[in-house]
Design a protein that fits this description.
It is built from one helix and twelve strands. It has one helix spanning 141-161; strands at residues 2-7, 16-19, 25-31, 40-43, 49-55, 64-69, 74-80, 88-92, 98-102, 108-113, 116-124, 131-136.
Length: 162
């Protein structure tokens, strides 16, 4: 299955929409306006909260983001590899081993689950907003969308620090 994650152009909190291949809404992402951790809430089609994504407030040389379930239980920690020029990320606190390996400036990344490729993220060039496409098995799409948003949060934070 292929989905598209599009950050909205005119948004204060960093809201996004997640569309299927037919450009129909699958999920809605609402960013919090005054959030130092760039908190984003991911809702399904029925408006039910399924994930919360936010950056770690404090960082010690390594950028991290958290993925929480609707009850605010931590599901995973997304951690950038220290001094990585290729865009390598590790997922901690998750039952399966997940690693994201990017290419030059992370325009394309492979998601590896237990060492095997399971998905691809492509950053699409856009003048005013970030856009991504994500290809994976349908059952993995909700979590992998949250993972993509977590990586986007990390890269946005890094850009602001430079």
């Amino acid at each position: 299955m292929k989905v598209f994650i599009k950050n909205k152009i005119f948004t204060i909190g960093g809201s996004s929409e997640i569309l299927d291949e037919n450009q129909q809404p699958l999920y809605k992402v609402k960013g919090k306006i005054f959030s130092p951790t760039k908190k984003k809430l991911i809702y399904d089609k029925e408006g039910k909260l399924i994930y919360i994504v936010r950056n770690k407030f404090w960082k010690m040389f390594v950028h991290k983001a958290l993925i929480l379930d609707a009850n605010k239980n931590k599901i995973a920690t997304v951690k950038e590899k220290y001094l990585s020029l290729r865009g390598v990320y590790y997922i901690e606190d998750y039952p399966e081993e997940i690693k994201i390996e990017g290419k030059f400036f992370s325009f394309e990344s492979a998601i590896l689950k237990n060492g095997e490729p399971c998905a691809k993220i492509r950053r699409q060039l856009s003048l005013f907003r970030d856009r991504f496409s994500l290809e994976a098995e349908e059952k993995d799409i909700p979590f992998l969308c949250a993972l993509t948003i977590a990586i986007d949060n990390i890269t946005d934070r890094k850009r602001k620090e430079d």
